[in-house]
Amino acid sequence: MRERDTTSGTRDSGLGTRDDDARFVSAGVDADLHAADAESGVPLSSDGSPESRVPSPESRLRFTGRVDSLGAEDRRRLTDRSTSSDDAVRARTAEIVQRVRRDGDAALVALARELDRATLPSIEVPREEWRAALEGMDAGLRRAMERTIRNISTVHAAFRPKATEVEPERGIVVGRRPDPLKRVGVYAPGGRAAYPSSVFMGVVPARVAGVEQIVLCSPPSEDGLPSSVVLAAAALAEVDRVFALGGAGAIAAMAYGTATVPRVDRIVGPGNAYVAEAKLQVAGVCAIDSPAGPSELLVLADHTADPALVAREMIAQAEHDPMTAVVCVAIGDETAEQVTAALTEQVPDAERRAIVERALAGQGGVLVAQTYDEAVAFANEYAPEHLLLTIGEPEISMVLARLRNAGTVFLGETSSVAYGDYMTGANHVLPTGGLARSYSGLSTLDFVRWTTYQRVSPRAADRLAYDVGRLADAEGLPGHAAAARAWLKPKHAHMKRHALNSAAKRIRNAEPSVERGAESVEDNS
Ligand SMILES: NC(=O)c1ccc[n+]([C@@H]2O[C@H](COP(=O)([O-])OP(=O)(O)OC[C@H]3O[C@@H](n4cnc5c(N)ncnc54)[C@H](O)[C@@H]3O)[C@@H](O)[C@H]2O)c1
Ligand SMILES: N[C@H](CO)Cc1c[nH]c[nH+]1
Ligand SMILES: [Zn+2]
């Protein structure tokens, strides 16, 4: 099955919604994902065809039942979601990364043909194309985009890293200064949907942080250009260069550089499993933000939750990708039954039903916790990208306080995840695959590196000399000890002479240093 609409070969005007894009998918991805579905053992639909009505999503949910009776294998599948744990994704990604590293631009052109069915007129998209896309864009959509840019800018400016100086002892100053990166690469996905919102999530914080040059990669449609809305977003966000490149190839190009694509200092942005895995694989040569792969949502719902709303939120995130993970942990059996019933009702009418069903069958679930404590413990173990709390007061505040491992938390029913995806100003580029326990969402912090500096006054140097010398002696590093003791004041000159002589002797004889139990120095300053 291919989800690419055969009518979608023509480029959108960027004026309206991209329903066609809903069916965009690369042939290879589809094949791989089918393999994953087959492995899960869960049928995609009752007669195997995507068009058939689904009698009950309960049978389509990969995980049901009580949290405390999950078997070891289910628990592993729920929590071990990293792309690196998927051998097929890891191997395929490595092959693409190697190809780009070896063959540069030639590999990029070939990959666009193989994976995106695109013939690239050029790898770089000329500026006139993005300008034209912006000029042709609907005024209402442009206003919405400008509002998003404003809100992202406000939030990220407030969280901008600041320089700090501290004096741990008199005369010792240690400082830290955030220096903007010179060139960063932003990835905006474009396989099964177009993501202008991801352009803003990457580019606006980079600008706020003061990055000098921002390049953007987004997959080409068949005509060799990224989606018009993505190009318009690039123009609006004032990107410096745009490349019509998708998937792992784009990530490898930005990490290693090719004749056309410049090597960047950090790669940020979300994408499918191949994109997330490629970022992890190039992390040894180029910094990344986080493995922001297939979307995830965990909902904790108690008896106050509206089951229809919970189902709607789950379907919304499930429509991204068949590899999306959406799970509800209901506190109490009745809530779980109601959420399951709401899914039964809503899934058949989902516009992107085929994707939603595959996501629910692969990594979807409605589970039951007996208590809030049990639900929180599960959430911290699951470490979702998005965590929605549809829980009443006062429990919601207590639950929030105890959460540690979520990319971002949505508080209460009106805080739809969709608002965060597009417009609250928080960043939607967030860690997935269970790695929200280790990484944070994209922020201005990702666009700086810290320079620390330290100054020691002459008096402080005298005060440090003895103890630093002792530590250096203990490590068997007499040169260090000598450097430290060189600043002992004349009143301690005998110690200085002794230290310098013994250091010189040790260096000459290349002996290991032995701590000598020297007398202590009084600090009179
Ligand atoms: N975690 C986050 O912060 C976040 C935010 C937004 C979106 N997302 C996720 O981004 C993803 C977008 O995925 P998408 O597919 O729509 O667009 P995408 O741009 O990520 O992927 C499309 C690219 O995948 C590559 N590809 C296709 N078939 C392949 C194959 N068989 N082998 C290797 N590479 C192949 C192609 O190069 C293609 O250009 C979704 O999973 C969505 O959930 C995540
Ligand atoms: N939910 C995605 C993050 O997982 C972000 C997004 C962009 N557009 C729609 N949604
Ligand atoms: Zn979303």
From TrEMBL:
Bias kind Low complexity: ranges: 49-58
Name of the gene: hisD
InterPro entries reported for this sequence: Ald_DH/histidinol_DH, Histidinol_DH_CS, Hstdl_DH
Superkingdom per UniProt: Bacteria
One MF term in the entry's GO annotations: NAD binding
NCBIfam families listed in its UniProt record: hisD (TIGR00069)
Residue numbers spanned by region Disordered: 1-67, 505-525
Physiological role: Catalyzes the sequential NAD-dependent oxidations of L-histidinol to L-histidinaldehyde and then to L-histidine.
Cofactor comment: Binds 1 zinc ion per subunit.
The protein's name: Histidinol dehydrogenase
